[in-house]
Design a protein that fits this description.
The chain contains 14 helices and 9 strands. By secondary structure, it is α/β, with parallel strands linked by helices. Strands 1-4-3-2-5-6-7-8-9 form a 9-stranded mixed sheet, sandwiched between helices. Bound molecules: NADPH dihydro-nicotinamide-adenine-dinucleotide phosphate and (2S)-3,4-dihydro-2H-pyrrole-2-carboxylic acid. It comes from Baudoinia panamericana (strain UAMH 10762).
């Protein structure tokens, strides 16, 4: 069943000037990415909040052909309802068609396909009947943790789809507030300039972008993809300490969040973390006292180990293994 949200939908097919972008899976991340694009198209803004804050993203040019029509594919009615609830307020939402169990028609209509499903679903989705013709010659972006370009290319080879351009990208959940740190894997051979510009444009709608080699993507997944979860623990811990010392709960969470935001502002302005830490540590003062407790607790090694562990787990997510978080010791 498909839900057409605006006038003149033309079945989700691109008009002559615009591209059709299809999300195969549109949950937390798909909604955040689509939201960033719709926001940009609705307001006419070609820069993100991050981009205007002295990011390298300011240099991203506007593609010759912008995405102008969208298919958001899910399986369940409640997922469709969530998309409408979270994105329905954008004027560009009229160009979104939500499709339940209609991956094939949405892929046929697409110029660009974004895999926004769970990693273990990729093989099944690509192997579905009709996908060979539907995918041939298209740009296929994957944000799925642990799924390599080689794996996707092997699925495409198995179904006989040819001429696809596969690009691996790792955004994070801060995309919802246009503050994602997104890594785009460099392709070999390099992408055409048109595709390169298009992909950079899409992901600068949701925050900052860097390009790194494919073989770093699992570590990028751990640092950027999982990172918000790790940083949230730091926020909770800061607030918990303050709550324990009598600060009201709501103010403690706000103070922790704003303190982290201010610190990241300094870091993004170019301050090295070690210099920042040193500047706060007045000799004989309270900061150095607290910092030494963190060192005694092995916080630095523990956080670094969490990133290393998540890297190893990420590398196994796309391999169809179960129990990838089982202890390795
Ligand atoms: N969450 C995060 O912070 C990050 C996640 N990622 C990656 O992004 C991907 C998506 O994660 P996330 O958004 O959190 O996951 P969600 O579970 O929120 O979204 C998955 C979406 O896929 C849909 N879906 C599932 N099966 C199919 C199918 N066969 N055909 C079409 N749609 C389908 C689901 O809809 P329904 O339930 O109705 O089937 C849902 O909309 C994952 O691969 C993850 O590794 C990357 C960076 C960060
Ligand atoms: O935890 C996960 O598997 C996904 C990928 C990165 C963030 N969330």
């Amino acid at each position: 069943m498909s839900f057409v949200n605006g006038r003149d939908t033309n079945g989700g097919k691109a008009d002559s000037s615009g591209l059709t972008l299809t999300f195969l899976g549109c949950g937390t991340m798909g909604i955040a990415i689509l939201g960033g694009i719709l926001d940009s198209l609705s307001t006419g803004s070609q820069e993100t909040a991050s981009a205007t804050a002295s990011s390298t993203s300011t240099a991203v040019p506007t593609p010759r052909r912008l995405p102008s029509r969208f298919n958001a594919c899910v399986r369940r009615p409640e997922s469709a309802k969530r998309i409408r609830k979270e994105l329905g307020h954008y004027s560009a939402f009229q160009h979104v068609t939500i499709r339940e169990k209609e991956n094939l028609i949405a892929t046929q209509a697409a110029d660009v396909v974004l895999l926004g499903c769970k990693p273990q679903m990729v093989a099944g989705i690509l192997h579905a009947e009709g996908m060979r013709e539907a995918l041939t010659g298209k740009v296929l972006i994957s944000i799925c943790a642990g799924v390599t370009e080689q794996q996707i290319e092997s699925y495409l080879a198995e179904i006989g789809a040819s001429g696809c351009t596969v690009v691996r990208v790792m955004p994070n959940t801060a995309a919802a507030v246009r503050e994602s740190m997104t890594v785009i894997a460099t392709s070999n051979p390099p992408l055409s300039e048109e595709t390169d510009v298009l992909i950079a444009w899409i992901f600068t709608r949701i925050g900052r972008v860097v390009h790194l080699p494919s073989n770093t993507m699992d570590a990028c997944t751990a640092l950027c993809g999982s990172g918000p979860g790790f940083v949230a623990v730091m926020a909770e811990s800061l607030a918990a300490g303050a709550i324990a010392m009598g600060i009201p709960r709501d103010e403690a969470y706000l103070m922790a969040a704003q303190t982290m935001r201010g610190t990241t502002g300094l870091l993004l302005a170019g301050e090295h973390p070690a210099i920042l830490r040193d500047k706060v540590s007045t000799p004989g003062g309270c900061t150095i006292g607290g910092l030494l407790v963190l060192e005694e607790g092995g916080v630095r090694g523990t956080i670094a180990k969490a990133v290393r562990e998540a890297t190893v787990v990420a590398s196994q997510l796309g391999q169809g293994k179960s129990g990838v978080n089982g202890t390795r010791r």
